[in-house]
Amino acid sequence: MTLFASQIVDGLADGAIYASLALALVFSYRSTGIVNFAQGEMAMLSAYLVWQLMAWGLPLIPAVLVSIVVSFIAGTLLYASIVKPLSHASLLTVVSVLIGLYLALNSLAGFIWTYTIKPLPSLFPKAHLQFGSFSVSAETAGIIVVVGLVLLLLYLLFETTKVGLAMRGAASTPDSAVLVGVSVPVMLLIGWGIAAALGALSGILVAPRVFLNPTMMFGVIIYAFAAATLGGFDSIVGAVVGGLLVGVVENLVGTYVPWIGPDLKIIVALVLIFGTLLIKPDGLFGRKKVVRL
Amino acid sequence: MNVVIKPRLPIAVRAIVGAALAVVFLYVIPFVIPNYLVSQFATVLVFAIAIVGINLVTGFGGAITLGHAAFVALGSYTTAILVVRYGWNPYATIPVSAALSWVAGWCLGFPALRLQGLYLALGTLVLSITVPPVLKRFEGFTGGVQGLNVGNPEAPAFLPIDDSQWIYFVSLAVAAVLYVIARRILSGPLRRALVAARDNQLVGAVMGVDRATLTTATFAMSSLYAGVAGSLYAMIVGFVSPDTFNVMMSLSLFVGAVVGGITSLNGAIVGAMFIQFVPVWASDIDVSLGGLVFGCALILTLVAIPAGIGGLSERLFIRARLGWVEGASAKRSVVAPVGSAQNEPA
Amino acid sequence: MSLLSLRQIRAGYDARSVLHDIELDVEERQIQVVLGANGAGKTTLLRAISGTIARQGTIMFGGMPIDRLSARKIVAAGIAHVPQGRGTFADLTVDENIRLGAYLRTVAEARQDRERWLTFFPRLRERLSQQAGSLSGGEQQMLAITRALMLRPRLLLLDEPSLGLAPIITQGLFRTLAAIREETGMTMLIVEQSANLALEVADSGVVLESGQIVLRDSAQSLAGNDEVRRIYLGYE
Asked: A27, B99, B160, C97: which one has the fewest Cβ atoms less than 10 Å from its Cβ?
């Protein structure tokens, strides 16, 4: 029973990381209808940036904050330089450009920092928290708390601020947003910035667990894809719920289904994605899409 | 809708181009260039086969696939397992690979009925990420991380050529047959149906084109191409291992298809050479340069020559034939536009 | 001087020109109605004014040229456009829709105005926390108008507010619009296809045919004009 409970908690921590990256995907998708295939690689670069800043002498926490701010700016630049000019391009062009970006960013990391793995210190102490007979590592608890706080901040942004309301309006009905004086491109720009910042968070949380290396996000982005698909690509709530569900299911399957085991856990993502797309293509929380003439 | 009547080059020009190509592929590559390059060119042919498959499904079917390495893996492992575990003749495994990949493509193409644009790209990408771990897991069958040693087929004793030349000619023969089949597919009424369904699904539906069946059939066909390519690949390399068929191979094939020209079958060979040789040259300078060059090439191609290298050279031929002014208007009809390869992202 | 005046306005979609040399004046505190058949260019006219479509010619608003301003700047200048089909933010709640209408104004102003407009549309007050997409057609139209009013515009453009509504609802809607004009003196330009109800509350009107204004008169004379009655008001 304790094993089961700790698997659930570990799953929630993994799920929180997936959720933050899935949220990043959802933000860019909601604003521009594009799945950013390069999101994971951007997150990886953000984690490398933390390492680099620390190598230059910055302490961990400031390095993390700087990296997140820089990532936000990079996200807005990506939107302005690549995504916006492609807003009328064909899907094939958009996908190709993002795949190109993915390949280029991946190699860029290898080019700058080589393919040798590097350690990134964890944001959390190595301690364990004891709750009666149940113990949980500070890292696991910390990840859940940090992501929880970020989600709360996002909630406050979208529910209580004018900019948040305008962003939701711009994503929901851009034509009408213009008519109330909202600058839609600026809102989309902010959306892509937030996406990049959320991705950075996921990268920074993952890196200490797997070591920094250019391929470190492969195992995360695939679950984030699964989470966003499961929750519905246009649903913020869906990304969070999807992320947590994927994290828990992945851990339980890895532990209790010997046929799959830890090596083949990745198949969970594949099954979830195809299963969702076949049974409920819009995801658990997604809006139904209408084919327009 | 783009119904295309392809302007033909005069017979003399076609004969000269054909003869030149024949000399290059039948003599220069197998007999003139250094021997170690011959098997690399065999790999180029194999990639070209897989890319023609992508041309079919993405260029004309309008369905973006980022997971073709999965089918190449299926073909490779079919050949490897039949040869190593059951002692089959390697050539006899090619039809089996073809059939298996066709069936697998049909099964996976079935979700493609439901998956729109982006989701299909996403699903196939995830599929290709899943392939190596699955191959490693079923060790007893696939040889796990160690892979399987297929061995290179030997040249028949009565021919005065060595093994790598032999497998090159085998690949060339298979590639030629598959190329002609693809041309056939794309010259009949099927092309019109494909393009109609691709460019506007609703219009396609109104015209009585059953898009779902068409997409699935195209997907199955393109998987068959990838599977056959995989069989040949196993014979050329003489060895299969899970990490060969990683997501990088899928993306490379996609890069090759776009750079060569997504609707240009002739461009497939250019794209294949690109993905075979560029990473080798680039990594002589720096290991990470390959990906950088790929990424930039992909973006630059789309910005500078959306029709790809193959598409561009086809246009130049037509221009030379018809003269600049007519060529300008002909260019629109030469290559069916990739412009609206999918319905817009919702 | 008129609040809004259009001179030699041409506009259209891509290569297709829809409006040809439109000349139109809207006086302050007036309700003017634009009548016309389907495809006459009524919607295009409103879009040309609100800057949501490319246009040529001169548009003066309150003495200021606005024909080169972006849609957003025109909103800021004081023209609110209620588009055809209402254009409410379907995923947002009624309250959020209303608040978003006051995007360019301060929160305090917004709160004050919301109360004021809700007295005109009490039905909306009951539905504040409901999703806009779940409202009935009439309620959505009320919401769209309220949202536009939240800008505190000097000119309100309404594109076929009666579309898809039962006559009784339309009648109530126009009476409310008249009451709003009575109380606030707001200028309105209303496009309508079935126009008897609109002419009841309007001061003047024009008839648009194939992108040109073919008739302009007071609302009363238009309502009495035989041809107008036959073609646009449905009398035989």
From this structure: B160
